Amino acid sequence: MTTRSGPAPRVLSACAPWVRTRLRTAPGAASALAALVLLTAFLAAGFPRAVDAYETDGLRDAVTSTTPRRSVLELSTPPPGLEHPWAVREDALRATQLAGTYRESLRKLPEPVRADAHESSYGVRTAQPIAAADPGLPRPYGLDPQFTYATPSALTGHSTLRAGRWPAVRGEVTAATAEVEAAVTEETAAALKLRPGSAVTVPKQNGASLTVRVTAVVAPLRPENSYWSAEQLLHTPSLVAKPAKETPRYYWTAAFLLPQDAGPVLLATTGEPELYWRFAPDATRLTGLDVPRLRSAIASLEGGPELLGLRDVAGPTATLTTDLDGVLAGYGATRSAIGPVVTVAAVGTGAVAAVVLLMTGGLIGARRHTELALLRSRGGSLRGIGRRLFAETAVTVVPAAALGLLLAVTVVGGARLWPAVIGAAGVAALVCVALPLHTTLSHITPMLHGDRDDVMNARPSRRRTVGELTLLVLAVGAVVALRRRGTGDGGTGSGAAGGTDWLVSSAPVLAGLIAALVLVRLYPLPLRLASRAASRTRGAVGFLSLARAGRSSADGTLPLLALLIALTTAAFGGSVIAGVAQARDDAAVLATGADARIGGLGDTAPLPDRLLRSVRDATGVRDVAPVQIEYGVPLPPDPNGFEDAKGTTLIGVDPTTYARLAGRTGLGEFRPDRLKATGPAAPEGAVPSEDRVLTAIASPSVAARLGDRPRDIQSLAGDFKVRVVGTASRTPAVDDTDFLVVDAASLTQRHTTTLLVTGDPLNAGELRALAHREGKDFTVQLRSETREAFVDTPLQSGAERIYGFAVAAGAGYALLAVGLSLLRTAPERTTLLARLRTMGLTTRQGRRLLGLEAMPQALLAAVGGLLVGWATIALLAPGIDLAGLALAGAPGSGALTAARLRADPWSLTLPALGVVVLTALAAGAQAWWASRRGSITELRAGDPR
Prior knowledge:
- The radius of gyration is 39 Å and the shape is globular.
- It is an alpha+beta fold and 945 residues long.
- The strands form four sheets. It has a nine-stranded mixed β-sheet with strand order 17-18-16-19-15-14-20-13-21. It has a four-stranded antiparallel β-sheet with strand order 2-11-1-12.
- Helices cover 50% and strands 14% of the residues.
């Protein structure tokens, strides 16, 4: 009888799984590593998304904040020629034909060019204004007003009826129609004295006339939007100067808004009618990555294949005009100025974070050295140990990195996903590979006892020396190449508009690597000298602290490198912020010339003397410099007979007050006696003596033109001889680089045109009240208000936020590096204090001992960071112009042509001092904590520590 064999009994594992056992054995270390990876992955994933976000916001702001006249894409074409029948020409100007062309053109716009249909418009307009001779129209200088006639689409949807009724057509309008209706805006009606029922006669080409009768006065809805502001004349009349050599004469220009189907009547007028389709750009779906495609699409629309596609719809002679490409060029210039600064911070912080991760792995490996050495001595293979360490690390690191990626995607929206995935995956890969690899390689050869690896006694191996020399040569070569090439040759933008120049961005890392390799090798020399000096002193604390510092691990490159890069990044960032603030201050001073500037239109209207007296008595005013400014003064021809048509700016000043102002502002300082004229003075209005020579301070270009001998100058202020006695590149009165400063008292036609006021604080309301009391056209410009006008665009503010977060993160990682460096030797220090306390060491002496022990390396990092920060700024400064970052084309910023990066002393010294203070605090905290614990545990017999 046979029995059926049952299933084999299940064999239970003899030991618990490795990963679970390790995680349960050291949950604190695993949790700390997971938290560090989570934070680093969040930063690595969030940085590219934040850059995409602020570049997108900056692009949208650049498109929407510019004037519609620049951003609108206008497609225009003349009507069909005279070779076509009148019926064909008239049909081309009717609303149905224009609307069909508008819809077809919208469909043909290439991506990513998108139009805002609500703010877009189309119609027919007269390209040339037509003069109106009707009586009753205002003529300020006796000149007839000139009107533009247009048939904008959707007029009723973009305006509100204020008076009368909406204009309409009566029957079918043709070129022979004798009368049409029109609407005008409230501003046009008020300026031209129009109302419902008013009529204007428009001459026709055949000698007949067209009557345009006003039936409605409308108020524009959202006049600042593209529908109305693409052509401001549609809603706001304007006084235009008639070109003339004599005093300019002005006439009114305005627009009449006809019904949509009234376009054919304009064919018979002399206004050269044209068909237009205006597409307001829709920036709501634009992203920073669209800039290259957008610029290419606009170029194609202006003169490429896309324009040919529009001509198939609008006509063979259609043209598209826009200044949106100029807007994009300005945006690209600002982004190129910001890109290197942000990338330097990101690379520096990333390098510090990588070093800290490596230090964390080294600390974990050092704490488990005995355990793994035991496994190795009992037959454990390197491959098996490495696999288990990899699995143990991956179980902790991969979920933490994934969670960091999820947080970054959640916090920073509206950006690409794949760069964030790469950043988080890079952090996870670095930890999962570096920690097992470093720990496993240290156990290639089983060792029971190793020699002391002291800084004082260590003799680096040839392999390490060759590796360090190789890194040093590569880093020095990269720095030399960067210095020779300059930072402006490579693409410094980020995103899609040009690649990131990683050689420029890695300058702090390269400089820090060079300094770390050199300082680690030089560190034992001063330490030996200090130890010898301390050995001759009576106190034991100093000698013991230096001896302990000398017995620290010789492998101190990573902590030092982390501190050096963090200090360099902080110094660079602080210098950039200080340089931006200084550039804005300089631009405000150049724009105003003083704390306040009072003048008329174009600095040409004379100011009454009582205004000068009242301003001097105003609140907060310390000094007033009266100035007479005359633009376009012709210069005598040079020896070759060449005449400068532009001329120069003549500035008549009071030498005493103007010299004080120039000294306070730092713009062209001079001594007042240098403007003392020679020869007899002439009364005001009289012809000066031929022996009278005015001394002058001139700009370099004007001084080169006039030479060093007296030259004749003819101006509205009088004819005189002038001799240049000094040069200045800038002067407070004007922001021009061509000027001539003379004593106003020596001019025959003297009158003040500008007041430059110094004081703090100035009462803007009081100054404006004094100026407007003397003349409504007098303006007051305050330096503080000009300074506030340099506000941050979304591109600037986003970059500043990212840089601030990067510097803060770098500082946090640097603090963590200090903590890890102290934590690695914490058990030894605790045991040392316990043993020394049995020998009579007091608590105060213990704190001094630990503090002094940590000081040499902290001072090394502080001094090295200060030097490396200065060297990095000197390296990158020639290629970084802070004017684009600080001003970004703001009004009043044109006078400041460049603003170079300079090392800020506070930004260099404060982070370095912070490292020393933090190290001292950390050492003091460790000594305090060790003094609260008992000595029994540290003094156990057989303790390997």
